[in-house]
Write a sequence for this structure.
């Protein structure tokens, strides 16, 4: 049975008290570290949405893409050409299929050096480390070094890390963690990647 209008008004008033108290308590500004993980669709596109928001405020962003099989995505076509965005594709040269661990580790470390540059640049309001989790999963990067660099970034800089299977130590370090669940994906029903939606 839905509430009558008086019950509804009272319920909403109680809710407003709780929400207002929570808002009043969260008065601090700080750089936030976010991890977007899980098997569902929406991790990288959420990160790019935050890049768009950042640009809306006239602020700068750095995007490092650690694994990428194509350069013709909508996000690179649009965000990559914005003067306030530093867009670096670092996956090129990764030889995931060679099973050459030394070569891949060296490539990953060169890529991380670019990320370190972003994490040391206080003029960047937002840093996106897209698909970083895979480099950690395969042990191509030193976990302690990565955590230390993330922790030492400028205090007001936000950082978003995407990728499946984020390690627990990254979740522990993060301020905001979302795990996107895969309930359904059109691909499994035979729909190929759609421009603007998937790439
Ligand atoms: P997006 O970039 O669309 O936000 P994502 O970052 O969450 O996706 P990735 O694992 O990076 O997911 O995969 C990138 C590509 O694979 C996208 O084209 C996306 O639509 C597709 N994809 C993501 N999750 C699934 C899934 N569960 N099944 C099939 N395809 C998927
Ligand atoms: Mg992704």
């Amino acid at each position: 049975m839905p509430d009558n209008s008086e019950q509804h008004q009272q319920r909403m008033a109680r809710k407003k008290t709780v929400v207002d108290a929570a808002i009043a308590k969260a008065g601090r500004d700080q750089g936030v570290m976010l991890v977007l993980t899980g098997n569902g669709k929406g991790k990288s596109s959420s990160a790019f949405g935050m890049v768009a928001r950042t640009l809306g405020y006239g602020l700068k962003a750095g995007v490092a893409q650690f694994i990428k099989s194509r350069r013709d995505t909508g996000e690179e076509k649009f965000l990559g050409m914005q003067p306030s965005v530093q867009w670096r594709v670092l996956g090129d040269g990764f030889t995931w299929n060679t099973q050459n661990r030394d070569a891949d580790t060296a490539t990953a470390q060169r890529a991380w050096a670019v990320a370190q540059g972003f994490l040391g640049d206080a003029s960047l309001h937002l840093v996106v480390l897209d698909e970083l989790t895979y480099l950690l999963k395969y042990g191509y990067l030193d976990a302690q070094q990565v955590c230390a660099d993330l922790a030492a970034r400028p205090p007001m800089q936000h950082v978003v890390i995407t990728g499946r299977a984020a390690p627990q130590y990254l979740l522990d370090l993060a301020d905001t963690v979302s795990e996107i669940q895969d309930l359904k994906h059109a691909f499994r029903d035979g729909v190929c990647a759609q421009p603007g939606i998937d790439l």
